[in-house]
């Protein structure tokens, strides 16, 4: 897969804030499958669940990003494995699987929505 897919748009969430990780495949990929602890290359967009405000996007920087899954927030460590290269997945991550319930991080206490395109594994 090339990483030239366009930046996704996230619809304003409706309903109650989920208390557990929500995983929804928007596009099912056909490439290599990500496994726990893999090195992955992704494009992603993150918004706050309550406000719908975008807080980060690799598309805005114009390049994908590569990192080991084990170094990321728990919601990504749990939500990306099983995804295949070429896929696009939405993760809704409650605070206890993101940046915690309290201060310290500007996203602490917030439920987050990420749309992730898996560009490469390994």
Automatic annotation (TrEMBL):
Span of domain PPIase FKBP-type: 37-122
Broadest EC class assigned to this enzyme: isomerase
Classification via InterPro entries: PPIase_dom_sf, PPIase_FKBP_dom
Top-level lineage group: Bacteria
Catalytic reactions on record: [protein]-peptidylproline (omega=180) = [protein]-peptidylproline (omega=0)
GO MF annotation, one: peptidyl-prolyl cis-trans isomerase activity
Enzyme Commission number, as recorded: 5.2.1.8
Keyword Isomerase (UniProt): yes
Keyword RNA-binding part of the UniProt annotation: no
Keywords assigned by UniProt, alphabetized: Isomerase, Rotamase
Any matching Pfam family: FKBP_C
SUPFAM superfamilies in the record: FKBP-like
The family this protein is said to belong to: Belongs to the FKBP-type PPIase family.
UniProt cross-references to PANTHER family, sorted A to Z: 39 KDA FK506-BINDING NUCLEAR PROTEIN (PTHR43811:SF19), FKBP-TYPE PEPTIDYL-PROLYL CIS-TRANS ISOMERASE FKPA (PTHR43811)
The protein's name in its UniProt record: Peptidyl-prolyl cis-trans isomerase
Originating organism: Microbacterium invictum
